[in-house]
Amino acid sequence: MFKKTLAFIVSLVLVLSLVGPSLAAGSKSEESVFATEQAMTKGELDPKADNNTAKNKGKVILIDLNRTNYDNFKNIKFLANKLENSGYLGMMNIRGDKGYDDRRNYASMGATGRVNILPDTPVNFSQLDNKDLYNYATGQSPKKINLLSINNLDQYNQADGEFKSKMGYLGDTLTTNGKKISVLGNSDYYDMLTGQEIKNRDFALMVMDSRGRVEDGNVDFINKKDQSFPFGISTDYNKLKEETKKYYAKSDLLMVNLGDTYRLDEYKVNLNSKTYTRMKYRVYNKISDYIEYVFKMAGKNDTIYILGSFPSKLDYANNRRLAPLVRFDMSDTGKGLLFSSTTRRTGLFANLDMGVDILSRFGLKNSEMVGRQLTNKAMANRDDYMAKEYKKIVAISSIRMSIINIYVAVISISWILGALALWQRDKLPKKHKKNILNFLKEMVKLGLIMPLAFLSAPILRPGSQVQITLAIVFMTFLLYILGNRLFKNDDLKQVGFFSILMILLIVIDSVISTPLMQSNIMSYDPMIGARYYGIGNEYEGATIGSAILGIAILLEYRKIPKPWVAIFLIVVLFTSAYPSMGANVGGAISESIAYIAFFLLICGVKIDFKKSVLVVAVTGLIVVAFAAADIILGLGSHLGNFVSQVITNGPMEIVTVFARKIAMNVQLAQTTVWVNILLVGLLILGFTIFRPNRHFSHMKERYKIVYKGYLAIVIGCLVTLLVNDSGIIAAATDSIYLLIPIIIILINKFNQKSDEYIS
User: What is the dihedral of CA 546, 549, 552, 554, to 10 degrees?
Assistant: First the structure.
C-alpha cells in the first residue's frame, strides 16, 4: 500500500506540473483588462506611520543620481559633508522581473511587485507631442506628462510576467488621496553609432499612476548644450533650481532625475582616465551645488531621498549590484542604517520597499504592494559597517557558483566512480581493490561534510573571496578529522554524526535569526533577491534529509523513546518554518509530511491512502497556524505575504503562485547544476525501492529503521518538488542524504563479505 501511495504522490506532482500553468493562465486571461480601463487603486491611511513628515504634512523630494555608488556620493562635496553627521543609508536590491536594468528597476519601485519591460518596448514620457494621441488611444484624460504605451506594458506583465505585477500603484495611491506628484529632468543622450537622440525618461515609471500619467513637471525643457559634459548635453542647473522651487511649492512628491550621472556612465567609453576625471569633477560640482540648494529650500518636516537607482556599468560587471539610498528626515539629525522587514538585514532593502516607504511618509499604505517601509537604526560607524557588509556580500556572490560547481562535481564524480567501481569490482586490481573502494567511500562522505563546512565557515568571519575559500577548506578538513576520530571504525555512525551536526547547526542558526545561513555560499544571494532571510532552498532539503537520517541512524544503535523523537522533530519543524526564524513556507509543508511519515513508519504504522490524506490535512493545519502567527505578530514573512495576497486577490492567487513555482522548477531543470544530482539520485532510488535487488533487500533487513528513513526522505523530495519554487534544488540536497549512505553501505558490505551481496 505504501508503494501505491508513493506512486500516487508522484502522479500528483506530474499532473499539477502539466495543468497548473494552464489553469493560472486561463484565470488571468479571463480577468485581463487594459490598465487604462481599470479603476485606480486608492490604498488606505496608515495609522502606524510614525515619522515627522506624515505627522506634520511635510513633503518628499527624491533626487535620483542614476549609475552612481555610495563612494560617488562621498565625492559630491555638499553631500559628503551632510553624510558625516546625518542620514540613514541603505543598499537596495535592483532586480526586476526576469532580469536587471534601469527601467525594470524604476517600474518595480512603484508597482505591486517586480516588473518586466522588454528592452525594445518604447517608453516615452513626454509633455509635448502625445497628449492627443494618449486621449485617442486610451479614452482617458491626459495629464501634463503621459506614457502612450502604458496598456502594452501592463498587458505584457499580466500575460507573461512572473509576478503579474500592476504598475503605477505608488502614483495611484498618492493621487487618489489628494497628493500631487511632479517630475523634473531626464537622462536623454545620443546613440554613439547613429547619432540619433535617445529620449530616456524611464525614472517616471516609478511615480506615474496606473494609467501612465504624471500630473506635473518638466522632462522636455531642462537640458542645455555644453560640450564639456557627456554627449555635449548638460542639465541646465539654473533652470533646474527655478523649476525645483516652482514644483516644490505646488507638489507633495517631487522626483528629480539628474541625468548627467547617467550620461557620464554611458559616455565613459569615449574618455581616458584624465578626461573622465575632469568631466566627473564638473558634473559632481554642479550636482553638489544643486543638492545644497534643495536642502536649504526644504522645510523642517520634509524628507529628502538621495538615490543611486542603478549601478554603473563597471560596478555591475564587477558584481557590485546594490544601489545606495540615503534618507534624510529634515527634523532628524541622526545617522545610521535603514532596515526593512523584507530583508531583515540591517542596511539592505528591496526596490519593492521604495514605493511603500514613500507612501508611509504621507501616512498611507496599499495592501497590494508587497514591499515594507524602512525604519531607522542609529549607528555611529555606519559607513564602516556597510562597507564591510557590502564587501562580504560581493565576495560571496562572486565566488558562490564556482564553489557550488566544484561541490556538485565532487558529488557527481564520487557517485559515478563509486557506482562504476561496485559494478565492475571484478575488474579492479585485487591487490588494491579494497583501498580503491575505501578511497571512494571517503570521497563520497564529502557530499555530507561540505554543506556543513559551508554553513559553519562564516563562524570564522571571512570577508574576501580568498578568506571564504580558506575558511571552507579548513572547516571541511576539521569536520572530516573530527568524524573519523570520534567514530573511527564505523562509517554509518560518521554519517549519522554529520547529519545530526547539520540539523543541530541549522536549528541553532534559525533560533538566532540565521546569521550563518545569510553568510554562506550555498545559501541565498541578496543581489539575486530571491530570498534574504531564513532557511534557503538548498538547506531546506538538508533540513529534511539530515534530521531524518540522523535520527534513523541514532535509532539503529540506541533505543530512544518515541516521544523524544517526536519532540525533536517538532522543534526542528518549528524553528525552520516559524516566520521569525527559518521562515521557509515550502519547508513547513514538506517537512511536516516527511517528519509525520517517518514517525508513523518507526512506530510501525502502515501508511495507507486514508492516513496519507490525514497527514496532508494535519500539514495544512500546521501551515495555517504558522500563517496566523505571522499575521497576528506582523512579522511580514513570505507565508504572511502569500496569505495577504490571497485575501486581496482571491483564491486564484493560490493557483498563480503554485503555477509560478512549477514554472520556476521547469526553468531550473534546464539551467541549474543541482538537477544532475536529483536526476541520478531519483533514478537510483526509484529503481531500488520499487524493484529492490537482493543486496538492497538484505540492506533493508539489516538497517530497518534507516530504510524507513529513506522512504520518508523520498516523500520529502517529492513534496518539495511540488510546493517550492526552487524545489529541484531542495530535492537535490535532500537526495544527498539518501544516496551517500546507500553507497557507503554497499562498499562496506562488499569489503566485509563477498561479491554475493553486490549486484
Answer: -60
pTM: 0.87
What's the rounded Cα separation, in Å, for the pair 604 and 704?
11
- Helix, strand, or coil (residue 392): helix
**Distance between CA atoms of residues 444 and 440, nearest Å:** 6
What is the Cα–Cα distance from 347 to 375, expressed in whole angstroms? 10
Handedness of CA 558, 563, 568, 573 (dihedral sign): positive
720, 730 Cβ separation under 8 angstroms = yes
In one-letter notation, the amino acid at residue 94 is: I
Max Cα–Cα distance, the chain, nearest Å: 91
For 344-381, what is each residue's pLDDT tens digit?
999 999 999 999 999 999 999 999 999 999 999 999 99
Q: Is the dihedral of CA 726, 728, 731, 732 positive or negative?
A: negative
Q: Which DSSP state fits 487?
A: T
Tell me which amino acid residue 654 is.
I
Instruction: Record the cell numbers describing residue 633, joined without a space.
Output: 505578530
Contact 733, 682 (CB under 8 A): no
3-state SS assignment for residue 585? helix
Residue 570: count other Cβ atoms within 10 Å of its Cβ.
Answer: 13
Q: Is the pLDDT of residue 648 over 70?
A: no
Per the CB < 8 A criterion, the answer to whether 497 and 486 are in contact is yes
Place of cell 557550488: 404
pLDDT at 707 over 50: yes
Average pLDDT over residues 528-550: 89
CA dist 732 and 537 (Å) reads: 10
The residues near 271 (Cβ < 8 Å, ≥ 6 apart) are 279
For 735-753, the pLDDT digits (tens) are: 889 888 888 888 887 766 5
Give me the pLDDT at residue 720, please.
Answer: 83
